[in-house]
Predict the 3D structure of the following.
Amino acid sequence: MNCNEATKLLDRTGGTPAACSELAEHLDGCEACRDYARERRVIALLADMPVCEPRPGMEARVMQRALGRSRSAARVHLRWALATAASVILAVVVTLQFYPAGGGRNPAPAGALQPAVVHVTPRQTHMVKVLLTTPRVLKDAEITVRLDDNLSLQGYDDVHELKWRASLKRGTNRLSLPVQLLRGGSGKITVTVRHGGGSKHITVNVTAAPEQNATKISMV
Amino acid sequence: MAKIIGFFQSRAVREHRFSELVSPHIGSLYRMAWRWTQDSDLAEDLVQETLTKLFPRVDELEGVEKLGPWLVRVQYRCFVDMYRKRSRAPACENLGWRADTDLLDARIAAAPDGSDDIHRLELQRDLARALENLGEDQRDVILLHDAEGYSAGEVAAILNISIGTVKSRLHRARNQLKKFVGDGTFERI
């Protein structure tokens, strides 16, 4: 088998060398064709790389929302809705360091991180995003969000503590909280993540801002 | 009153036209959005944002010859404006592209032991992680061209770069990814 025949066969088989013994033999002695086989294999694997299916009804949902028919419902979800130009994003970044028990590294420091402060206009909903950055996957972490009486979570009126379990991906995870400061003054949001016997807390102080200075952000 | 009724009729007609034009492409918009964001909720938001921006341009859409790549081009701009630029902000400095391998993990777990499927899925999982090491420019080209099958010309139009640049980025990116590929297996760096 020559190089021309080998590359044609590799094109047909997506770079799989085991497709034919003659090809395998040729590849053993030809670095250029081996390199070509690797490239074809990368391309074949990429072309077949699966995509996570959307939630059922995605097409109808995005169309409806795009046409402005169900915007209010869309904003209740506790997730990062990409901002429109008119919306307000207050981002708070938290780095979570959970180490495996007995892993030979310093144990996870329990307790609260330095509080963050966000300035908002009272009685208006602001999307406060807490970005939880973790160097590894945290499977089945327990997440708790507590709000002071002076704060309300859109879609969860009169609920001041939410608790659920979720897996946090390696890297940055986004928790979006559509929060309203009910009166003047301030209120406190506490987000707690528990995993593997360790826990981390982040406190966000939501404070009324003067009219001309609303939505100022102070970072952790 | 007639003017008001006419306004709503006009809007309904525009919505219908818009829906007919873009509905066949929503699936591929979602696929590309997921490849960029690696998150199904973010991908859905990105598609929604793209359609929201496009609705006022329904007349322009009707004149577009190849609507699929054109829509992805608009979506790419939305992605850059609303996600990537934000991820570069100091508040989000750790927000790099991270491969979501949950789907592949689940398929690997569900596949019979020792099957060819497992090997292929494991290779794809490693390749997905290898994509994290590419620069944004190279990854964009690879995802559009090799993963989603857009032609070099379409990728050039979507990313607003020359075809020559597309080809050179593809070449460099594949060379980078080949380092993870042994003769039939992957070797981690």
Q: What stands out?
A: The longest helix of chain B spans residues 2-22.
